[in-house]
Amino acid sequence: MNKLIKIGLPSKGRLKDESLKIFKKKNFSIKDSKRKYLSEIKNFSLNEVVFSHAREIVERLADNSLDLGISGFDLLKESLPGIQKKIQVFSRLNFGFANLIVAVPDAWIDVQTIADLEEISFEFKDKNTGKLRVATKYPNLTNDFLLSKGLTQYKIVNSLGSTEIYPFTNQSEIITDITSSGATLKANNLRVLKDGNILKSSACVLVSKKSLKDKNKKKTITSLLKKLN
Amino acid sequence: MKSKKYSEALLNLFKKKGFKVKEFENIIESKIIIERSGEIFKKSLLSFEDDNGKNFSLRPDLTISSCLDYIKNVKRGIYKYAYFDQAYRRTFGKESLVRNQLGCEIIGSSNLQSNAEIINLIDQSLKKVIKYKTTIKINDINIFYALVDSLKLPSRWRLRLKRHFWRHDYFKQLIKRLESNSDLQKNVFELDKKSYFKMKKLKKDKMIAGRKINEILNRFEKKIKEPRSNINGARVAQIIRDFLNINCPLKNAKNELQKFEVKNKINLKLNQFDVFQLNLKNNNAMFSTNIGRSAEYYTGLVFEIYKKSKSFNLASGGRYDNLMQTLGAKTKVAAIGGAINYDNILKL
After folding, report:
1. Does the pLDDT of residue B149 top 60, yes or no?
2. Cys staple from B315: which of A69, B261, B305, B333, with CB 3.0 to 4.6 Å?
3. Is B31 on the interface with A (CB under 8 A)?
4. Confidence tier at B186 by pLDDT (50, 70, 90)
């Protein structure tokens, strides 16, 4: 009989701080040390807290090495359909707000909508300079969105960070990225297209569907979620 | 085995008409397809990367394989391909990754005879092998393009409608947008006018993210000169919808289209199209303006063959005169081809 539940929490940044706050607010004590990635909720039944990268939490919930966790809604939606169907969104949380958007250089004054972008993409094709390049950390969400809006002639450039400078360093022409206030985009001479909102994201509590099929685990998970809610 | 019996019989009939049965390479460089089709097709490719970071895919389609073979090995003149083999595509539902594809292509010929040759060959061979009566549906997508050119629309909208004709769902969205005039943003224009005057003072060939200042300003000016507020979007949308409902015997097609021209006060310049002179052996030939919208590479005549008693698709194909060049041919090479819907035939 396996009663141990494994909880994944973000290992750094605001997502981690805000996640720990939720537990603290409900009088759950989690020992946190910067270098230690394993911990536990002291005053709750058998459990293990694993501090991981937010993206990894989604994958570990899908392969059931975690039972529940906190991660970004954007990261869940970016994962493959096979992963998403193994995870249940229990609740959206009141932090980690951000929008995934399509942004173009501010000086592209003739481009206000995705329909404009579609025309520009054919200009690139006709000029034989290659495809319009879209830098992003979210290739799946970007592809689904752009294709649904009629854009077909483009190429994804996978970015790991500082995506905002890609259009000005000849690494891409446009970007999709997460933004909360828009200040970084503005500082880097980019602007969001009028119909370029791909996804509204926030942190959320995610549960592995496989864990919910295990009676003992379900009981413990439900009890914890009730207390956190 | 039914599968082997049909494929052998069909390939033998193709061979008798001078088509050469070919086997193609299983793996192709993904770049060739992605550079052509963009990300839309990339999703369907079964790809992998080698140690040098080069991306390869299992062949997704045998028409593309025929073209690549022609570019590599034949290079010029007319070549008639026949094939029966497997193509591989990533699937998102319960469909199989492996598709049996049986087809034929005439590469290097642009004439009306080769159009009739492909359609008659596939249709007559099917009739002999599966022993069912068939109906052929014919269309020439250039007639749709002529319709779009004849309508009172901004040139940007004309291009948009032509480019997305093959994407059914998105095309419907476009028509709705056209109907409602919902993409006008006068307020945004006003804001950008300030930047426009600032940018006019800059060097015209300065590049901003892959585009010259000049290109940006020219397009901005074009947008201002071509506002959509003065077009009757609802009427244009209705004309397009009515056009896509035309379905009549091929022998009456020109007449039907002429009536459509008179009714809507447009000129489709029908004399430029040779689809009406197509010499088909099958008397059950229909003209349907709404077919041949499954692949973006079709450039002219398209056809679909059905089992006569049911609307059961047996084969489809069309002319693709620009595909070869986009796959790497140095000059334009006209081509037409068709594939038999083999899985459907096995269900008969």
Report:
1. yes
2. B305
3. no
4. low
Q: Does A108 touch chain B (CB under 8 A)?
A: yes
Distance (Å, whole) CA B169 – CA B105: 29
Tell me the residues of chain B between 44 and 103 that have a Cβ less than 8 Å away from chain A: 92
Dump pLDDT digits (tens) for A141-199.
Answer: 999 999 888 888 898 999 998 999 999 999 999 999 999 888 999 999 999 998 899 99
Question: What pLDDT is recorded for position A127?
Answer: 75
User: Does B196 contact A112 at a Cβ distance shorter than 8 Å?
Assistant: no
CB contact under 8 A, B220 and A112: no
Residue B294 has what DSSP assignment?
S
In this complex, which of A110, A118, A173 lies closest to B216 when CB atoms are compared? A110
The total of other beta-carbon atoms located within 10 Å of residue A116's CB is: 21
- Tell if the CB–CB gap between B39 and A194 is shorter than 8 Å: no
> What six digits make up the tokens of B236?
């244009």
Split at pLDDT 50, 70, 90, the class of B311 is confident
> Using the 8-state DSSP alphabet, how is residue A96 labeled?
-
Interchain contact A106–B (C-beta under 8 A):
yes
| Cβ(A196)–Cβ(A174) below 8 Å | no
Residues of B in contact with A191 (CB under 8 A): none
Among A200, A209, A208, smallest CA distance to A74 is for: A200
CA dihedral B9, B15, B19, B23 (to 10 degrees): 70
Predicted model pTM: 0.81
pLDDT at B156: 82
| C-alpha span between B154 and B118 (Å, rounded) | 37
What ipTM does the predicted assembly reach? Answer: 0.82
CA distance A39 to A32: 7
- A110 shares contact with chain B (CB less than 8 Å): yes
* Token pair in block for residue B13: 């009939």
A80 inside 8 A of chain B by CB = no
**Chain B positions in Cβ-Cβ contact with residue A112 (cut-off 8 Å):** 185, 188, 192
Read off the pLDDT band of A228 (50, 70, 90): confident
- Bridge partners (DSSP) of residue B136 are B285, B305
Q: Walk across the sheet containing A190-201 and list its strands.
A: A154-158, A132-136, A174-179, A98-105, A190-201
Q: Is B134 left (phi over 0), alpha (psi -120 to 50) or beta?
A: beta
Q: Which of B39, B55, B169, B207 to mutate to test the interface with A (most CBs of A within 10 A)?
A: B39
Residues in chain A: 229
Query: For chains A and B, what is the number of CB pairs under 8 angstroms?
Result: 88
